[in-house]
Amino acid sequence: MTATPSARAVSQYATTTGNLTARMALHAYGTNPQGWFAWLGERLPLAGDVLEVGAGTGELWRRVDRPATGLRLTLTDFSPAMCDRLREVPGARVQRCDATHLPYADAAFDTVIANHMLYHLDDPDAALVEFARVLRPGGRLAVAVNGRDHLAELDALGPVIDRFDLAVGSHQNDVTAETTPARIAAHFADVTVERYPDELAVPAVEPVLAYLASMVGPLTAAQESAARDMVQARIEADGAFRVRKHTVLISAVRGSR
């Protein structure tokens, strides 16, 4: 039976930060000189009471300069391992909780951030309802999601290693760049979408193998050999293993209702 998105997230993230760290490491090979976190940080309203839901390892707050005053930061995640890392972020309040049942009062925050996390939920619309509830009227929502073709060249390695479950979409819900703006518009106003321009150009095989292992577990010798041969051939032909990216930032405003 196919695991639910939340069950898959528990197996991947509840007890370790290693899988997420391996995946983020691959994005160091992005061709955009401005990395994702810097690009995102420029577009976030960083003032007042800010909540990031599903904050993972807190990497955003290690890469973005926070205002010296005027920002009260709250970080949440369902994972005990992630919360342990989040407690290393200076000045942040950290809470382990479910994104669909936030332990905060109505209208408690000026900004809510959901960076690459909605697709891990069994009921993403319930989370959007919660985001609207805890935002003040006029408060801002920032949601990052991926398109259906995101990392397609990595997904294509699944059949090569006989792991058809490698494809990200096989264990996530239908929250994508194509569908999410309309979902958000059901609860928020002034919805805008901006795509982050980037692709990966990976010059060596090892980072790709580390990504594969983070997704499906340790590779057998045969799986590693098959993946290595294909990736190395692409590197020799194209100068790098090139991977398409399709990530968007969706911004919206909490209405007065």
UniProtKB/TrEMBL annotation:
Name a single GO biological process: methylation
CDD domains the record matches: AdoMet_MTases
Alphabetized GO MF terms: S-adenosylmethionine-dependent methyltransferase activity
The alphabetized UniProt keywords are:
Methyltransferase, Transferase
The record ties this protein, via InterPro entries, to:
Methyltransf_11, Methyltransf_Superfamily, SAM-dependent_MTases_sf
Pfam families, sorted: Methyltransf_11 (PF08241)
Q: Where is the Methyltransferase type domain?
A: 51-142
UniProt-recorded name of the protein: Class I SAM-dependent methyltransferase
Q: Which species is the source of this protein?
A: Micromonospora robiginosa
